[in-house]
């Protein structure tokens, strides 16, 4: 390729800038020109872009958010929108499009193949880690740390007042954040997609554990970490149901958007650098319609469509360890 385009789409994730930097620098290293479209797929349709060169990306490896801005774009879901986007890429002589985003962005990119004949590559950037074909997504490690730091503070209050706190973390339809954050915070109870059967059973389960622990230890702090989009009505409803069902008073706390922001931790910067450079290598090798993943130490490519087909489950052995340990709590 002589000229490639980058964009960031969907939910922003810490490390997207590091991926922009690595892809840009590695492309420039190989004599490839790079432009960046702004506001996700909106930039493609409305021809809003900027040239990416070394000075532009020089100081962005450590900053959260994305210099290209991110957005959702309904227009891109229509054939007319996709055609307009493809026409703009053609007019700018763009040989390849690299999209840094989540599963929705990749579904869009897969469909875009029908309109755009150039190479397409996806780099997984989402705090949810819910993309199949890669151990980790860019932003996940930072989001785990952010949530853990916040919950450590909540734990101080829970300890001081010997109260029960119920903290809801993000993750969309995936339990990676809940499980990993819960483990790192020594949560007494973790509710994730893989161990949730129905609201009634969950209530019973929590209530019997809390009654048991109160008997053995007396009043003490107790921390429940739950995935979002799981218990109907979320953390607030669960707290109110616990009060009604078992006279258990607990304080619901929805962590929310702080989990998406912040400077990327080193692990995400390194992952983004590895994936960005590897994406350019794949373009040079002539590959298209693929997503970059990481498997242990190594980057790999998987068919783009396969990354969004299957539900990626959390690590079963980690979940089993957590459940074994929970018996002691
Ligand atoms: P994420 O990439 O973080 O999962 P979204 O699910 O919001 O975020 O998707 C981001 C964007 O990808 C959407 O706003 C839209 O432009 C595009 N997209 C998502 N699904 C489709 C689809 N079925 N067809 C075309 N484009 C899509």
3D structure, described in words:
This protein has 329 residues and is of the alpha/beta class. The radius of gyration is 22 Å and the shape is elongated. It has helices at residues 16-29, 41-46, 54-57, 79-91, 103-112, 140-161, 176-184, 199-217, 234-246, 266-284, 316-326; strands spanning 3-8, 33-37, 49-51, 96-101, 119-124, 164-169, 189-191, 222-227, 250-254, 290-295, 298-303. The site of adenosine-5'-diphosphate (ADP) has 17 residues, from helix 5. The site of adenosine-5'-diphosphate has 17 residues, from helix 5.
Provide a brief overview of the structure.
β1 (about 5-10), α1 and β2 form a beta-alpha-beta unit. The protein has about 325 residues and is an alpha/beta fold.
Beta-strand content: 15-25%
Query: Largest sheet, order of strands side by side?
Result: 3-2-1-4-5-10-11
Please give the largest β-sheet.
7 strands, mixed
Number of strands: 11
Computed over alpha carbons, the radius of gyration is: 22 Å
* Molecular shape: elongated
Helix proportion range: 40-55%
Task: Round the mean pLDDT to the nearest integer and report it.
Answer: 96
Reading the helices and strands in chain order gives: EHEHEHHEHEHEHEHEHEHEEH
Q: Ions, cofactors, ligands: which are bound? A: adenosine-5'-diphosphate
Please report the distance between the alpha carbons of the first and last residues: 57 Å
Query: Which regions are unreliable across 5 or more consecutive residues at pLDDT < 50?
Result: none
The helix tally amounts to 11
Provide the structure class: alpha/beta
